[in-house]
Design brief:
About 35% of the residues lie in helices and about 25% in strands. The protein is an alpha/beta fold and about 350 residues long. The protein has two domains: about 5-170, Peroxisomal Thiolase, Chain A, domain 1 (3-Layer(aba) Sandwich); about 175-320, Thiolase/Chalcone synthase (Peroxisomal Thiolase, Chain A, domain 1), CATH 3.40.47.10. The strands form four sheets. A five-stranded mixed β-sheet has the order 1-7-6-4-5, with helices on both faces. The structure holds oxa(dethia)-CoA.
Length: about 350
């Protein structure tokens, strides 16, 4: 069987930043509450479309892999905040990249979307349907936030991360994949106001969450999945070099670390800078970990996530030789003309 390995990576986070203190001027909250309950200090708020963030992250991943857009056979965008319901965000990305040889589709598994997407990429490669897949996790989730819902408005941020997944005969790359879902928990984390169910209703666009139910589910499932993914790869827990968990709450990340009995440096965390960027947290974290020299050739990684659905998933990955990008690009998003807080306020005004 052909293995699937990550050969390129990149991220694209929009420039506008909103700190907790700034958010507290429009939401009934405080820096102290957000920091102690979640670990978040600030988040980025996008002034460009989701597909623009996804495309720039994709370009960076392609440059890191030394590939051209025409080398890609399939583009997967993991997102629950598409530019439009039809067509997929992946089709916009395909056009913006000029990746005319690539098929393109989105996947929505909430915050677990990147891990689900990795399983799709692996499957496409294993069955010879594709040799090079561009997998992107990208979210513009601040557009869904209702500033009157303080329990969710402070938790999320925008951004995109991308990887190139390539076929290899080497015994590297994805070693195991654990996926699961529990649709009976759908109401614990959902978005109202968007979707055919709401046509003709007064329902407002908002993320609605029973935080404690989601917290409990995330702690249990992310812990279980991490252990199971390692076991299926025939690793002991002490073999794991770095866990890259979904970034929803520093207390959830700490609980996963405690379950493994691991030191802090074995579990990557950057939630303080970005908040929860849903399907984008893992590829953003992976790309930052590489930039910081936290991943070495041959390292054993666990990527693990939990999200709306409920959905959960984990994958054990043996990293290949490439730990520095083959190439980089200078391109940036256009300079924003408004602040991040103004973008959030304008969005809120449009709700009324
Ligand atoms: O990506 C997957 C999806 N997301 C997650 O995994 C998130 C999972 N859940 C969580 O991270 C946590 O449950 C939260 C951070 C959302 C909430 O933390 P918590 O410790 O579970 O707080 P809580 O919901 O029990 O609320 C405690 C108090 C409540 O007040 P009372 O009833 O004790 O008076 C809330 O009304 O905090 C209040 N509260 C706030 N106060 C200030 C809720 N949101 C806020 C806020 N600022 N933003």
């Amino acid at each position: 069987m052909r293995n699937a390995t990550i050969t390129g990576w990149g991220r694209s986070v929009p420039q506008p930043v909103v700190t907790n203190d700034e958010l507290a001027t429009v939401v009934d909250t405080s820096d102290e509450w957000i920091t102690t309950r979640s670990g978040i200090k600030e988040r980025h708020v996008s002034h460009v479309q989701n597909s623009d963030m996804a495309t720039l992250a994709g370009k960076r991943a392609l440059a890191a892999a030394g590939l051209d857009p025409l080398d890609i056979d399939y583009i997967i965008v993991a997102t629950c905040t598409p530019d439009r319901q039809i067509p997929s965000t992946a089709c916009y990305v395909q056009a913006k990249l000029g990746a005319t040889s690539a098929a393109a589709s989105d996947i929505n598994a909430g915050c677990t979307g990147f891990v689900y997407g990795l399983s799709m990429a692996q499957g496409l490669i294993a069955t010879d349907a594709a040799s090079r897949v561009l997998l992107i996790g990208s979210e513009r989730i601040t557009a869904y936030l209702d500033l009157e819902e303080r329990s969710t408005a402070v938790l999320f941020g925008d951004g995109a991360g991308a990887v190139v997944v390539e076929a290899t005969d080497e015994p590297i790359g994805v070693q195991s994949m654990i996926l699961g879902a529990d649709g009976t928990s759908a109401e614990h984390l959902t978005a109202t106001g968007l979707g055919t169910e709401f046509i003709g209703t007064e329902s407002r666009l908002a993320v609605v969450m029973d935080g404690q139910e989601v917290f409990k589910g995330a702690v249990v499932k992310m812990g279980e999945c991490t252990v199971e993914a390692a076991k299926r790869a025939e690793w002991s827990e002490s073999d794991i070099d770095l866990v890259i968990p979904h970034q929803a709450n520093i207390r959830i990340i700490d609980a996963v670390r405690r379950r493994l009995g691991a030191d802090e440096e074995k579990v990557y965390a950057n939630i303080h800078k970005y908040g929860n960027t849903s399907a984008a947290t893992i590829p953003i974290a992976l790309s930052e970990a590489l930039d910081e020299g936290r991943i070495e050739a041959g390292d054993r990684l666990i990527l693990v996530a939990f999200g709306a659905g409920f959905t959960w998933g984990a994958s054990a990955v043996v990293w290949g030789d490439r730990v520095t990008p083959l190439g980089t690009i200078d391109e940036e998003h256009p300079e924003p003309t408004v602040t991040g807080l103004d973008i959030m306020k304008q969005r809120q005004a449009a709700f009324r």
